[in-house]
Write a structure and sequence with these properties.
- The complex is a heterodimer of chains A (619) and B (160).
- Chain A has 17 helices and 20 strands.
- Chain A is of the alpha+beta class and 619 residues long.
- In chain A, the strands form two sheets. A twelve-stranded antiparallel barrel of chain A has the order 8-9-10-11-13-14-15-16-17-18-19-20. In chain A, strands 6-4-3-2-1-5-7 form a seven-stranded antiparallel sheet.
- In chain A, a hairpin with a 4-residue loop joins β14 and β15.
- The longest helix of chain A has 19 residues.
- Chain B is an all-alpha fold and 160 residues long.
- Helices cover 48% and strands 1% of the residues of chain B.
- Chain B is built from eight helices and one strand, in the order ααβαααααα.
- The radius of gyration of chain B is 17 Å and the shape is globular.
- The chains are: A alpha+beta (619), B mainly alpha (160).
- Chains A and B meet through α7, β3, α8, β4 and α9 of A and α1, α2, β1, α4 and α5 of B.
């Protein structure tokens, strides 16, 4: 009751005439209605992180799992009660609660016309922090996937707060939402909890330079930086609210309530009018966060930050083959710079060779323990580069941005023939990208599929499971004069294969290491393969197998062609040989036509299959 | 515990940063960056959940293994150089005469935007003096840079 009247007065709606009883009741009702509408306003709900139907868990409640965040005991469920408690706590001059809730204070003071001269003058801790947080620009940062690491393939997002533009971004502040990982957990439990939830998630603020070190330098991930279209006041909302989230525990869920999703919640505080949090989001893939912000008109500009691996590639690309080989040797013995062979090159080429050798050395050793000899060579190469004239600048090549890639889910319809028997197939893939899909915005040669289902219907039979990839990851990491990575794949699920003359279901897991190379647009590869399978055609529960595969990928334009063969021998003396060719031709960003030709040979038998598919990416 | 870490990380450390000596053992050229990382599964998981380990929330300790961890918010030249991996980047940029690490260094040393071109060039010319050998520490580097600036008419004002 007290609150309602106070609120009414604060609103400047106090009646001029002395209230009579009936009038008083009317005033109260009016004040209550106003407070209720204030408690339902998008910004208040954003400040409380209320789930307005965006994800499945905690609907109608706040995502914040930490009672310390709320001033009312019912605050998590009841935005109105929290508004009342917040009003009561923030109103008094010198209130301690103001120091913890600067954005809520802004909300109430704007709504109620509070005119306090220096509302935070007693909050020295907050004021010091606020003075150190830059707020000239807010930037969304997307570290893309890196080669050979599946856990990175979906990318990540964080925010960055910049100061003066001429100061560069190293000293900017990175805002990251991540799970707090307890190093004492054992690793299986780790993975389980990471996926299923149960990790506490916190916002953290670290210097952006450490993020550049982590992503661009150590993990070799390209980074995309998108300046958000937020005006000065909107940026204030965001930074002030950030302070309210220090030490506040959220739940972390890998699939939906993850790093990306929480950033949307932050941006929603700055811009509650864009409808960012409207609509259901079953999983939040970081690249979709970028798209959501683009759709909401929140992306103002984009900057590409190449990884160290890309920088090395660029240097190498400027050198002819003989200079490349010499640069590689130079990394082992910088003394070669005195040789006639080195001196025969033009000084600017010499400089690029010195830089290449240096970057190569750091590329190899950056993650390793300090080695005195490597340190000596590194410095010698820097000295050499320092003494040579700078080459003419080469205009940077920017790859296609990740948000321009195809959508993350897939449905496909196929028509096919297997040994003159016709069939139709439907396919659904929950996520994300395979070798042949349009590579715009994706890392070439990196495939990660989860929950990829194919159902087949033949003339003689009903719809049947043809294949289910629970997870199917393939990583081609090309080897060069400078880097020698090992490619690998792992695939597990259910597939229909020949066993004892029957075309039946087999549950299997296979994996293996491999090698890949790059020859212009063509990527040849070879893998070893180990397999275990459970097939009801055979007695033992598990039959194991070993084999190999080889093939090539060829990118031309946006189309991809692949051909290859694989074979493995099972411990029960059976074998399966498969030859396969695939052509994928995108007709638009999200539509593609695909042809598959496959020949599978088993003991005493061989089937040929042909498929033509229409593939549609969505969501 | 977390509260203390937070406060230290956010405020305490930054307030006292300039008083701390930079670097420490293991903080020289080509630092050991993955010291304390315990194996692939943990790294994979950390990547999956974008994790911070231990009490590093809102914290300033990541990326500074083996080095002085202070001063991450309010940068002085010393605290920046003491951050893991930064000295290496600064060396590269000085050798080349430009780069983001060099810009960050000039900002942290208070060099105004109009003097930064000159700052870069001056350091570039003195690369060998700043990095006389590969075991140079962040402290040595900073001292050399400061003495070079003192001797330079345009840059002397930043060393007062």
């Amino acid at each position: 009751m007290f609150f309602r009247i106070t609120l009414l007065l604060s609103l400047g709606m106090a009646m001029v005439a002395p209230p009579v009883w009936s009038n008083h009741v009317d005033q109260e009702a009016f004040a209550e209605a106003l407070a209720e509408s204030l408690a339902e306003s998008p910004r208040w709900l954003a400040l409380l992180h209320v789930n307005r139907g965006t994800t499945l868990r905690s609907r109608g409640r706040s995502y914040v799992a930490d009672q310390n965040f709320f001033l009312s005991a019912d605050g998590r469920h009841d935005p109105y009660a929290e508004l009342v408690a917040t009003h009561e706590a923030l109103k008094p001059e010198g209130s301690e609660a103001r120091c913890a809730y600067p954005a809520r204070y802004r909300f109430l003071s704007e709504a109620l016309g509070w005119q306090h001269d220096a509302p935070f003058e007693h909050c020295s801790e907050y004021l010091e922090w606020r003075a150190l947080m830059p707020d000239e620009r807010v930037v969304l940062v997307f570290p893309a996937a890196y080669l050979n690491s599946p856990s990175s393939m979906f990318g990540h997002t964080l925010l960055r707060l910049d100061g003066d533009e001429s100061d560069g971004v190293w000293l900017s502040q990175a805002i990251n939402f991540g799970a707090e990982v307890d190093a004492s957990d054992n690793s299986v439990f780790y993975i389980y909890r990471g996926l299923a939830g149960g990790y506490p998630g916190y916002f953290s603020i670290v210097p952006y330079v450490t993020k550049i070190q982590d992503y661009a330098h150590l993990e070799n991930r390209d980074m995309w930086e998108y300046t958000l279209a937020l005006d000065a006041e909107q940026r204030q909302w965001l930074v002030e609210h950030l302070w309210e989230l220090r030490d506040i525990r959220f739940d972390y869920y890998f699939l939906d309530e993850n790093c990306s999703f929480r950033l949307l919640e932050l941006i929603d505080v700055a811009r509650p009018d864009t409808g960012l949090m409207e609509g259901m989001r079953l999983t939040e893939v970081p690249v979709n966060t970028v798209r959501a912000l683009e759709d909401a008109g929140l992306l103002a500009s984009r900057v590409y930050r190449p990884s160290k691996a890309v920088e090395l590639d660029r240097l190498v690309a400027q050198l002819p083959a003989d200079a490349r080989r010499l640069a590689r040797r130079l990394a082992d013995s910088p003394e070669l710079s005195a040789s006639d062979e080195f001196q025969a090159f033009a000084p600017q080429t010499q400089r690029i060779m010195a830089q290449t050798a240096y970057e190569y050395l750091r590329f190899i050793h950056r993650k390793r323990e300090r080695d005195a000899e490597v340190a000596r060579r590194s410095l010698a190469l820097l000295r050499l580069a320092n003494s040579l004239p700078a080459p003419d600048p080469v205009p940077p090549i920017e790859p296609e941005a990740p948000e321009l890639g195809h959508a993350t889910k897939l449905v496909a319809a196929s028509y096919g023939q297997r040994e003159n028997n016709e069939f139709g197939e439907i396919q659904f893939r929950y996520t994300y990208h395979d070798w042949f899909d349009n590579s715009t915005g994706f890392l070439r040669g990196a495939q990660i599929e989860a929950l990829n289902l194919r159902l087949r219907s033949t003339e003689s039979g009903p719809l049947k499971l043809e294949r289910l990839d629970v997870v199917n990851i393939r990583s081609l990491a090309p080897r060069s004069t400078f880097v020698k990575p090992v490619s690998w794949f792992v695939n597990g699920g259910i597939e229909r294969v020949q066993a004892e003359g029957r075309y039946g279901l087999s549950r299997y897991v296979e994996a293996g290491p491999g090698l890949a190379w790059q020859a212009g647009p063509v990527t040849p590869y070879a893998f070893l393969l180990a397999r275990v399978e459970n097939n009801s055609a055979w007695d033992p529960l598990i039959t194991s197998a070993a084999g190999a595969s080889a093939g090539l990928l060829w990118h031309f334009g946006h189309a991809t062609f692949g051909a290859g063969g694989s074979g493995y021998y099972l411990t029960n003396d059976e074998y399966r040989h498969r030859a396969q060719a695939t052509l994928n031709v995108p007709v638009s960003r999200n539509n593609a036509l695909r042809l598959d030709l496959e020949r599978l040979a088993v003991r005493g038998d061989a089937d040929t299959e042909f498929r033509i598919s229409w593939r549609y990416h969505f969501d | 515990m977390k509260k203390i870490v937070l406060a230290t990380a956010l405020l305490g450390a930054s307030m006292t940063a300039s008083a701390n000596a930079p670097g420490g053992p293991g903080c020289g050229w080509g630092n050991m960056l993955f010291e304390g990382q315990s194996g692939l599964p943990i790294h994979l998981l950390a990547t999956l959940v974008n994790g911070t380990s231990g009490n590093a929330t809102f914290g300033m300790t990541s990326g500074t293994n083996g080095c002085d961890t202070s001063g991450a918010l309010a940068y002085s030249g010393s605290s920046l150089l003491a951050m893991n991996g930064v000295l290496e980047e600064v060396a590269h940029d000085i050798a080349m005469g430009e780069g983001e690490a060099l810009t960050a260094l000039s900002v942290s040393m208070g060099v105004s935007a109009e003097d930064r071109g000159h700052f870069n060039q001056t350091l570039h010319q003195h690369f060998s003096a700043i990095f006389p050998h590969e075991n140079v520490t962040a402290e040595d580097v900073l001292a050399s840079i400061q003495s070079i600036m003192k001797a330079d008419q345009q840059l002397a004002k930043y060393t007062a």
